[in-house]
Amino acid sequence: MKADSGSYRIEVNHVTRVEGHGSIRINVREGVVEEVKLCIVEANRFFESFTRGLSPHEIPWVVGRICGICCVGHQLAALRAVEDSQGIEVSPQTVLLRKMFNESQFLQSHLLHIFFLAVPDFVGAPSVLPLVKSHPEVVKRALRLKKLANDYTAVLGGRAIHPMSATLKGWRQLPTMEQIAGIRDRLLAALPDFRESVAIVGTLKVPAFERETEFVSLKHPDEYALYDGEIFSSDTRSGVPVRDYRSVTNEFTVAHSTSRWSRWHREAYAVGALARVNNNFDQLRPEAREVAGLLGLRVPCFNPYMNTVAQVVELVHCLHNSLAMLERVLEEGLKEEDIQHAPRQGRGFGAVEVPRGILFHEYAFDAEGRCCDANAIIPTSQNVNNIEQDMKAFVPRMLPELTREELTHHMEMLLRAYDPCISCSVHMLEVAFIE
Amino acid sequence: MGAFLVRKAAVTEWIRSLAREQPLFFPQPVGRSGFRFQPLREGSEVRFDHYRPSVVPPGRQLTPAGEVLFRYRTGEGGVPGFESVLDASPRILAGVRPCDLRGIYLMDRVNREGRDDPHYLTRRANTAIIACDCLAPCDDFCFCETVGSLRWREGADLFLTSVDGDFLVEALTPLGESLLPGTGFARCEDVAGLRARAEEVRVRPFGRHFALSPERIAAILPGLWRSPVWENCGQRCLSCGSCNLVCPTCYCFDIQDDFDISDPSSGDRRRNWDGCLLPNFAEVAGGHNFRPQPSARQRHRVKRKFEYLVGRLAEGSFCVGCGRCGRQCTVGIDIFDIVSELVAVAEPPP
Amino acid sequence: MKPKVAFFDFAGCEGCQLTILDCEDLFLDLLERVDIVEFREALSETAPRFDVAFIEGSIHREEDAERLREIRSRSTLLVTLGACAGLGNVQARSNFLSPATNFRRVYGEEELNRVQADPEFWPLWAHTRVRSVKEVVPVDYELRGCPVVAEEFLHLVKSLVVGTVPHVPTVAVCVECKMQENECVFDRGETCLGQITYGGCKAVCIGHGYRCDGCRGLLPQANLEAHRQLLRDKGLDESRILERYRLFGSAEAWGRERRP
Amino acid sequence: MIPNFTTPDVAAPGVAASGVFVPETACSRELYLPQAARLLEVEALTARESRFKVELPRPLGHRPGQFVMLSAPGIGEAPISISCGPRDDAILEMVIRRVGTLTRFLHELEPGQWVGVRGPFGSGFDLGDFYGRDLLFVVGGLGMVPMRSLIQAVMATPDRFGKVTLISGWRTPADELFRAEVQSWSRLGEGSGRVRVIRLVDDTAKLPWDGGVGLVTEPIADLDLDPERTVAALCGPPVMYKFVILELVARGLAPSRIFVDLERRMRCGVGKCGHCQINHLYCCQDGPVFRLDRVAHLPEALP
Ligand SMILES: Cc1cc2nc3c(=O)[nH]c(=O)nc-3n(C[C@H](O)[C@H](O)[C@H](O)COP(=O)(O)OP(=O)(O)OC[C@H]3O[C@@H](n4cnc5c(N)ncnc54)[C@H](O)[C@@H]3O)c2cc1C
Ligand code: SF4
Ligand code: SF4
Ligand code: SF4
């Protein structure tokens, strides 16, 4: 049965295979879409409230707990914000290590999303588990790569999730040259595995839906911006400094909800892998641009389902960029740095790209060096509005073609394509109104 | 057996060359003030002049944490087959100080007492020890002289003494002799003279001293079962067990089995460091704990070092005076202070 | 029969579930031994009953508590994963503030007024106290840490597979610090909660240059009085000491502190 | 790599000319390696306790009161008393209470499955101390298990001993172990009056019970007991000892005629792991059976 006739409501409570809890509600009355709504049902953890009182050193360590999968990103954004507030300049060595740290998490997170959360969608499997039986090599390879990416993070941070080595000004404990060389060697040895994995994504069928939107990401004059840069819009092709992030996110509330949504130059904007690839395509490493070509990703690309492909492109970028950075560390060596710092008063802003998009942190510290104000805006909360706009645009187009089940599946798939990270939702909270 | 007078640089070079042939554990600095016995690598520092006792004593290399005792595999008809795992790989412990040397000597005794422990003794048999003398206390925690460790040499294969900037290198066993370079070192005749020279410059008195000899301490302890000293340190004690785990003569262990997740019919049995300061150490099935309070556990530790084992093995003091437990205890409970207080109560100074 | 295992998450970062998914080497072996019937992180199936339910995250709303009770009723064993489920984790710090304060700080004054005036939002106020799982339903085992330790998870699963009681050492982090031969944090001139915290983490934070913040929870034998005095001696004032104790195990440490 | 264990004598380390050691093992017997034993019977005695009968590759040659280290590979190992008297065959009997990891696992096993056994360990009872004496056995609960190995030995040659009195205490009638066997001992003495059995429970729990109600200490005062001729052996939970000993001493029994069987946590059974230490003694080697006068002065022996 096609989905278009009659009045009904589609509800997917607790969409699976996303980080955190989200629900989709679609109301159709007599064949006309009346409402499409994405609800975040994750309980709020009030990070911005309870972080007050903590010291500058504790903030990055604690706010990493916002999200297990983006913990490195939260640490880095917090470190940048706190350092900004404390007037700390970090050494080139620290910047280099942090970039590696960040990219290690890109590898981890993208691998997880592509192979464990998204691929089952494309091949029509309910989860990765049946794939263990049907495609054992694919799963094993993915597990191998994931482990390697985790170990890469652990070499830099001490462990893969909630690492503890990175702190203000630098590293509590530096990785050893043996560890760096070990990871470099393993990444090199894994190149064939990466190649195979990329090839698999090339065989997946991506739904062909497009909706033009604004893409927002960091942009840096010298490199594919992941750790540093200005906030850049694809609409204006210009940027604003990080400290003005509130003029970008323009958080607004919608009636009957305390959820904060974002918009900049139009009704909604998108962040994430697709936004970054669209905005900074020329700065990707050549190997990554080549893969983009192979997988049919041409910029600008307005198909949100292609976000997964953009992640593959970034995977390749981070892999080769990491190899170059690891090589540099091996050449230049690492030296102990003074990381002592006496907390002081101040306010600071930080932004980094994390796998799901641009992440903003802001902190203020009082005269005693205790946190007195905190704000964090995560990529998913910036994306929610855009996802809903996509759904509103796609559902009427899909209605005549798809059954109700297919429609539901496509909506879930759309949501998952954004790789939403709802656990992070420091700011989002929506009341579900059941009539 | 041979004795040689060798330039410092030559000793360093020789140690390095030994490290190329087998793992050679040498104390290397960690963090701000710690030391760790680690395999010497190309480029690591070889220095004999700056040292504080390592966090964990070198003797622990002979009973590593989590060592596998045996592996098992279930064979035909469900019959388990057991295979002992013995580590007979050769190694050298170098830069071992007299207190730790005595610690190893005492562990040799313990592991031969009653029935031999094959795991310890196999490692021990394949371990050579290059000890080196202390001419000044490592820090304020040291009290090795008063418990009879300072001039300890037994158990070492080679013994190094710094004499006027050079080293007197003495081979004490054939194994030690075999580690010396072919003809590289010049034999020295007047060993006694050189030793006397070292003795002359040795700091005196060396480290902290008890008012009584170890023998007297062992004699007075039985009468001090109810001393308030136990309760005093029991109240401060956090029961963290650090004092046990860093002690060169603490050897208690716990045993755990594990099976392989990939094949549950095979697995292993391991042993892990344990300590009598840990709260559940003396708990039996049914939940009764024979030493429920920290004070009782402190008493047991002290009496074990200064009374029980002393009597059992007839070996002076089982505390070798390395000072580790006092150094590592975050609330400053120092076995030297405890014993000193006990001595003061039992035999108040005139 | 392979045990049926399910994973559920409440308010948390999902790092614990990821840690388990990250047992890459073992994940496939694990699948041979247990049937994973619910795992939202990786799976969209659900099952009516299971042998073991793993719970991640802390409990904030009454609807969450209800869901948890329902899960408990479907499962033979219930195991908490990590500091959120076990102790309330960092977010339980918000318990020390009024709901209005928390809300104002996150959403602002204007939003607070709007929400307070509108009865439709009132259910939100049920949202105000962070609870650990054991405050809501009985718990059979706790896997500790933020995040959990993969080896401990594996040990627990193995025990469940063969039907034995998992071995849970009640020893301090210091024990593992010694086994790792770490330099003590106090020797670096800083302070540490390792002496009063459940070990099992291989002292990983200390081994990587940090200190122990107590994410695995307070040991039953913890001598808080002596530890507090130690922190005072090291120059921490009372409010800093409280912050330290409350960081991960807020709810628990607080209850314990007040116990005579 | 797992080296196959060989058993050379304690040897000095061999040294090759280069100074590299020749690996070799260093001692004569592997202390921690169990031998595989086949389970012959598992019989539930009470809700918590079962009797296990296993067959070893060769006779154990144990004395009454000794114990073995029993293990299930992969699960764990624990000290378990030998509950049968000395015997020539390779059969070993044990009674195990289900309390924790290992014991629960053992209770799930079926005949034909295998376990690991090390031992026998410990001092045990020396029958020489008992010949020609009147014997008094006082047991509480699971204490019956090791004591049975002694009583069985006594009952094998009753003529070599004087009067035998057994006082056993149980929580409820449902907890009683070896009821039939105990009754057979008591029948053995019916004619001569040489064996007397007093069976007590704390509480009949409304179950049928043909013994008395009370604590094991209570009958001692009224026993027909000649302190000069009597030797007593005690085994039970930690709390039992103090009170029974007080009663026995009140009856004039010298501590040198009282034997106690003590329990401590043990990991190795061979005096290495340190857990079972009672002051300077090791329960596993110096005990678990002690003559009271040798431990009475030790503050940790009897809580
Ligand atoms: C000489 C001797 C003879 C014995 N004879 C018998 C016998 O004949 N029959 C019999 O049933 N039992 C006997 N026992 C007791 C038996 O050894 C214990 O019950 C056994 O250890 C249980 O093992 P388990 O693995 O089943 O229990 P475990 O899982 O080890 O737990 C049992 C109890 O031991 C305690 N415990 C366990 N591990 C620890 C730990 N790491 N730290 C602190 N406490 C812990 C706990 O209180 C727990 O309730 C004897 C003990 C001794 C010393
Ligand atoms: S008791 Fe303390 S001082 Fe004595 S040997 Fe042990 S650690 Fe060293
Ligand atoms: S190190 Fe100190 S606090 Fe820890 S158990 Fe030993 S005496 Fe107690
Ligand atoms: S660093 Fe912390 S956990 Fe480690 S020994 Fe010191 S106090 Fe204990």
What does the model show?
The complex is a heterotetramer of chains A (435), B (350), C (260) and D (303). Chain B has 350 residues and is α/β, with parallel strands linked by helices. Helices cover 32% and strands 20% of the residues of chain B. Chain B contains eleven helices and eleven strands. Chain B has a seven-stranded mixed beta sheet with strand order 1-9-8-7-6-2-3, sandwiched between helices. In chain B, helix 6 (214-220) packs across helix 9 (294-313) and helix 7 (228-236) packs across helix 9 (294-313). The radius of gyration of chain B is 22 Å and the shape is globular. The mean pLDDT of chain B is 89. With 260 residues, chain C is α/β, with parallel strands linked by helices. In chain C, strands 2-1-3-4-5 form a five-stranded parallel beta sheet. In chain C, helix 3 links the parallel strand 3 (50-56) and strand 4. With 303 residues, chain D is α/β, with parallel strands linked by helices. Chain D folds into two domains: 13-121, Elongation Factor Tu (Ef-tu), domain 3, CATH 2.40.30; 127-295, 3-Layer(aba) Sandwich (Rossmann fold). Chain D has six helices and 17 strands. In chain D, the strands form four sheets. Chain D has a seven-stranded mixed beta sheet, sandwiched between helices. A six-stranded antiparallel beta sheet of chain D has the order 6-5-8-3-4-7. A two-stranded antiparallel sheet of chain D has the order 1-2. In chain D, strand 13 (230-235), helix 4 and strand 14 (258-261) form a beta-alpha-beta unit. Chains B and D meet through strand 4, strand 5, helix 3, helix 4 and strand 10 of B and strand 6 and strand 15 of D. The structure holds flavin-adenine dinucleotide and iron/sulfur cluster (3 copies).
